From TrEMBL:
Residues 211-311 form the Formyl transferase C-terminal domain. GO terms for cellular component: cytosol. GO terms for molecular function: methionyl-tRNA formyltransferase activity. It catalyses: L-methionyl-tRNA(fMet) + (6R)-10-formyltetrahydrofolate = N-formyl-L-methionyl-tRNA(fMet) + (6S)-5,6,7,8-tetrahydrofolate + H(+). Pfam families: Formyl_trans_C (PF02911), Formyl_trans_N (PF00551). Gene3D superfamilies: Formyl transferase, C-terminal domain, Formyl transferase, N-terminal domain. This is Methionyl-tRNA formyltransferase. Belongs to the Fmt family. (6S)-5,6,7,8-tetrahydrofolate binds at residues 117-120. The keyword Metal-binding does not apply. The gene is fmt. PANTHER family: METHIONYL-TRNA FORMYLTRANSFERASE, METHIONYL-TRNA FORMYLTRANSFERASE, MITOCHONDRIAL. It is an enzyme of class 2 (transferase). Its EC number is 2.1.2.9.
Length: 320
């Protein structure tokens, strides 16, 4: 079976690597155009492009595939390339571009997608972040047949993993990327033998995982500590949750909820600051967060005891 692959970040590169190692022929890879990155803002190839080039796989980087969009000539050229490339199926993982029906219809067996949630839960751009933020007890991977709607296609395979109280988007991403690679290889191997059973997604339980914005990273200490702990974990590594102390923005990388906390304190007020962490009152003193790992501007991520050696945090100060 010949597989065209479309994807961009590390999550997708893990799947592409699994497909290559399983022995499937990949005649073409689609990925997003190179983007400026790093301090020098130099153009950098995506993780998928880098892997494809290591294996001498041809790479195409159209800015759009929509024939009725802003770049019809580019889209038309991409369609012609897909039609001219002998293949059976397209695998899509975190590609980042919309695939119109005209493109989805080209492969003989259609297009399948590796989605980082248990559909129909968390359709959309940020399923891993939103699952942690919402306090979900589990997540997983769904391999689905793609159609025009956003993550609405019939499900071919689904596997769940638990979300622990220590999981961050970074840790969960790596688990799901590995699982996605295993599952897409499983799906392709089964498709070689014949069609997979397709389960239509139920209408009940549909939620939308909106793209994460940098503005969301500013913590609101009027919320309870449980909600704030989830946000800190959901926004690790991006966009990094933070609070503002005086005029300094401090990033919070790891925290825990203080058990049985209830005392007179304002939201965001520092209750204690020592080697065990910085305790901050939340929800008008009805709960509290112990921050265990922090980062000041220009500094490194540090455990609280190390952070406090180089940055003074005093009882009674207010995080806003």
């Amino acid at each position: 079976m010949r597989v065209i692959f479309a994807g961009t970040p590390e999550f997708a590169a893990t799947a592409l690597d699994a497909i290559i190692k399983a022995g499937f022929e990949v005649p073409l890879v689609l990925t997003q155009p190179d983007r400026p990155a790093g301090r020098g803002m130099q153009l950098q190839a995506s993780a998928v492009k880098q892997l494809a080039l290591q294996h001498q796989i041809p790479v195409a980087q159209p800015v759009s595939l929509r024939l009725d969009g802003k770049y019809p000539d580019v889209a038309r050229e991409a369609h012609e390339l897909l039609q001219a490339t002998s293949h059976d199926i397209m695998v899509v993982a975190a590609y980042g571009l919309i695939l119109p029906l005209s493109a989805l219809s080209i492969p003989r067996l259609g297009c399948i997608n590796i989605h980082g949630s248990l559909l129909p839960r968390w359709r959309g751009a940020a399923p891993i972040h939103r699952a942690i933020e919402a306090g979900d007890s589990e997540t997983g991977i769904t391999i689905m047949q793609m159609e025009e709607g956003l993550d609405t296609g019939p499900m071919l395979l689904k596997r769940a993993i638990p979300i622990t109280k220590h999981d961050t988007t970074a840790s969960l991403h790596d688990q799901l990327a590995s699982l996605g690679g295993e599952m897409v290889v499983d799906a392709l191997q089964q498709l070689v033998k014949g069609p997979l059973h397709a389960e239509v997604q139920p209408e009940q339980g549909v939620t939308y995982a909106a793209k994460i914005s940098k503005e969301e990273a500013a913590l609101d200490f009027q919320l309870n500590a449980i909600a704030l702990d989830r946000r800190i974990r959901a926004f690790n590594p991006f966009p990094a949750a933070h609070g503002k102390l005086e005029d300094t923005v401090i990033k919070f990388w790891r925290a825990e909820v203080v058990a049985n906390f209830d005392q007179q304190a304002g939201s965001g007020e520092v209750i204690d600051a020592n080697g065990d962490g910085i305790i901050i009152a939340c929800d008008d003193g009805r709960s509290a967060l112990r921050v265990l790992e922090l980062q000041k501007p220009g500094g490194k991520r540090l455990p609280a005891n190390e952070f406090l050696k180089g940055f003074s945090v005093k009882t009674g100060q207010i995080f806003r």
